[in-house]
Amino acid sequence: MPANTGRPSEDGLLVVDALSKNFGGHQAVNQVSFVLQAGAIGGLIGPNGAGKTTLFNCLTGFMPASSGRVLLDGVSIAGRPASAVFAAGLARTFQIPRPFPEMTVLENVMVAPRGQIGERFWTNWLRPAVVARQERQTLAAARHWLDFVGLSGLVHEPARILSGGQRKLLELARVMVAEPKIVLLDEPGAGVNPALLDQIVDKVRALNAQGTTFLIIEHNMDLVAALCSPVMVMAEGRLLLSGTADAVLGDARVVEAYLGSPA
Ligand SMILES: Nc1ncnc2c1ncn2[C@@H]1O[C@H](COP(=O)(O)OP(=O)(O)OP(=O)(O)O)[C@@H](O)[C@H]1O
Ligand SMILES: [Mg+2]
User: Fold this and answer.
1) Which atom in ligand 1 lies closest to the alpha carbon of residue 24?
2) What is the dihedral of CA 188, 86, 215, 28, to 10 degrees?
């Protein structure tokens, strides 16, 4: 079984064990446990404020969890900074993408993940030939992934001219340069027009067929039903249940969680 709400076995690509995050007295993520197998496109749904983005923030090192364990390919990543988690192969995109507006689309994809600047400084100084080769490789990879997501015609434009959907595609290209094992997408469908949404779905499918595992937060249930298995449901910080899209979307507890939400 690819995911469950009990204590997880340790052999998935991503193992989350009793993860919690509280803000003051508010328990935003409450004892969440699941296993995502390599090769899956997992879905994470739930009403506004359920704790989905907070869970992503804790998994990716953007926020320290209050307690719990996270294993990526059997290695503990809980408590490690975002740059280290990214380097270990767990990448994420943001609910509201904020590219550097005045940098070009290409430059945005080539930006080094934060935390590696010092490392780069010393390598630059000591081994310029190695650095030059790495830069060429990064440039080639950036162009490849921008082409893959359909933005090759805009590489020299400032990122501020991109639409919401194009910004989502830019983020996908940016994370793919690092060849992650698993990509966490926070609402890839939000604010995206239907044509571009189809394109994003196609890209996720193609990347998955090439071996990338995904976990996707999404409110668009058509997208979830088309792409995701297993689908996990969060409500009020807890993992309510998980299963196939059909089973989960027809479950009375899920309907109730959405109806009871403040949004
Ligand atoms: N940095 C923070 N400080 C304090 N409270 C926070 C913080 N981030 C999130 N919260 C609270 O934690 C809860 C979960 O928020 P979160 O953004 O994770 O929800 P979500 O499931 O992603 O919702 P949405 O579908 O609207 O994006 C909410 O009550 C929110 O107000
Ligand atoms: Mg969110």
Assistant:
1) 4
2) -90
Q: How far is the CA of 5 from the centre of ligand 1 (A)?
A: 21
> Which tokens hold the place of 105?
């689309």
Domains (ranges, CATH) in the chain? 14-259 (3.40.50.300)
Residues at Cβ < 5 Å from ligand 2 ion: 52-53, 95
The answer to whether residues 96 and 191 touch, using CB atoms and an 8 Å cutoff, is no
According to the model, what pLDDT value does residue 2 have? 45
Residues 183-213 have pLDDT tens digits of 999 999 998 888 888 989 999 999 999 999 9
Q: Name residues contacting ligand 1 (CB within 6 A).
A: 23, 28, 46, 48-54, 95
Q: Looking at the predicted structure, is the pLDDT value of residue 67 above 60?
A: yes
Distance CA 82, CA 32 (A): 20
Cβ-based neighbours of 33, under 8 Å, separated by 6 or more: 4, 5, 6, 7, 8, 16, 17, 18, 19, 239
Report the atom number in ligand 1 closest to the C-alpha of 55. 18
Q: What is the DSSP letter of 160?
A: G
pTM (2 d.p.): 0.89
Please report which ligand is nearest the Cα atom of 235: 1
Query: ∠ CA(172), CA(177), CA(181), 5° rounding?
Result: 80
Q: What is the average pLDDT across 34-40?
A: 97
Separation between Cα atoms, residue 118 and residue 124, nearest integer Å: 10
What is the residue with the minimal CA distance to atom 11 of ligand 1? Answer: 28
Of 27, 53, 261, best ligand 1 pocket probe by most atoms within 8 Å of the beta carbon = 53
